[in-house]
Amino acid sequence: MTTTETATFPVMFTSGGDTIAGRVHRRAESITERQPAVLVTGSWLTVKEQMADRYAAELAQRGYTAITFDFAGWGESGGGMRHAELPSRKIADVRAAAEFVSTLSFVRPGQVGYLGVCASAQYALTAAAEGAPISSYASVAGWFHDTGSVAPFYGGAEGVQLRIDRAREAFERYQRDGELVTVPAYEVGNDRAGMFFELDYYGDPARGAVPTWANEMAEVSWIPWLTFDGVARASAASVPALFVHSDGCVFPENIERLRRGLRGPVEVVWGDGEQTDFYDRPAQVSFAVDALDAHFAKTLAGSTTGVSA
C-alpha cells in the first residue's frame, strides 16, 4: 500500500472459536507505518457497514488506523445463533478484537482505542472494566441501560414480560427442534420487531438499510437484552473516557451516572441532535469526530494525527 488515499482491506481473528470478519481503514504511505488504532462498532442488531464504517472512514482521515468488525453471529462473521443479541458474547468479541489489534505491526504498541456508537458502547466499556487491552474509550450517542431504564421503550413492565415470554418460547423451540425463530430487527408497527417505532435510519437505503444488513433478530435476544446491566459493571472501568451525547439521545441520565461513577478521567461533550442523527448526519458526525480526535490524540500516548493538524 503506497498511497495516501484512505484504503481498506479485510482482516480476521477468532473469538470463542468463531471467525470474526473485520475491515481496516487507514491512510498511510506504507503498511509499515505505525499509527494509533481505534476499534469502531455500532448499534445493536447491526453490521459493520452501517454506522461503524462511517466513523471509521472519518477517523482514518484524521490519521488513525480504524478497524470495524462484525460480532459473532452477525454479518460476515461466523458463529451460531445468527442475529442473536447476546451481550456476553459481544463483550468477549470486544476483548478478542482489542487483543488482536494489539498484535498488528502497523499499530503503535499500547495505543488501542475503542469507539462504541449506540449500544455497543455499553459492551465496550464493560469489556474495558473487565481488563480488555483498551487504552482509551469513547462513545457517541451511547446506549447504556438496565432493565428499569429500558422498560419504557417496550411499554413498561408488562411489555418487558411479554417479550421475555416470547423469548422463552423461542429458546424452548431452539432447544427442542434446533430452529431459531427470527423476527424483523426493524419494522414500524410490528411489536415483535426489535425496533418497532419510526426510525428513518433503518428504513432508508441511503442511510442504514444497507444490502449487507439482514434486518433480522433472533427472538431469543429479548432475555439477554432486557436483563443486561450496561451501567453497573461498566462503572468499574478506569480507562480514560469520552461521552459524546445530547439531550435528544437515549438515556442522558445514565451518561451522568457513568460520569460520576467511572474510576478514570471522564469528559462529556454535549451536542445537538437526535439519537440516529449521530449515526450518519454530517453535522453530528463532524461534531463527534472533532471531539473524538481531540480525545484520542490526548489519551493514546504519543499519538499524532498529522492528517488533521
What is the approximate shape? globular
SSE run: EEEHEHEHEHHEHEHEHEHH
CATH fold label of the domain at 7-146 and 229-299:
Rossmann fold
Structural class, judged by helices and strands?
alpha/beta
Can you give a write-up of this model?
By secondary structure, the chain is α/β, with parallel strands linked by helices. The chain has a domain of 211 residues: Rossmann fold, CATH 3.40.50. The chain is built from ten helices and ten strands. An eight-stranded mixed beta sheet has the order 1-2-4-3-5-6-9-10, with helices on both faces. The protein has a two-stranded antiparallel sheet with strand order 7-8. β9, α8 and β10 form a beta-alpha-beta unit. The longest helix has 22 residues. The C terminus is likely disordered.
Task: Provide key terms for this protein.
two-stranded antiparallel ribbon; 309 residues; 22% strand; Rossmann fold; disordered C terminus; alpha/beta; 10 helices
Short description:
With 309 residues, the protein is an alpha/beta fold.
Task: Give the topology, please.
Layout: E1 7-15, E2 18-26, E3 35-41, H1 51-61, E4 65-69, H2 87-101, E5 107-117, H3 120-129, E6 136-140, H4 147-150, H5 156-177, E7 182-184, H6 200-203, E8 216-218, H7 222-227, E9 241-248, H8 252-261, E10 266-274, H9 277-280, H10 282-299
Parallel strand pairs: 3-4, 3-5, 5-6, 6-9, 9-10
Antiparallel strand pairs: 1-2, 2-4, 7-8
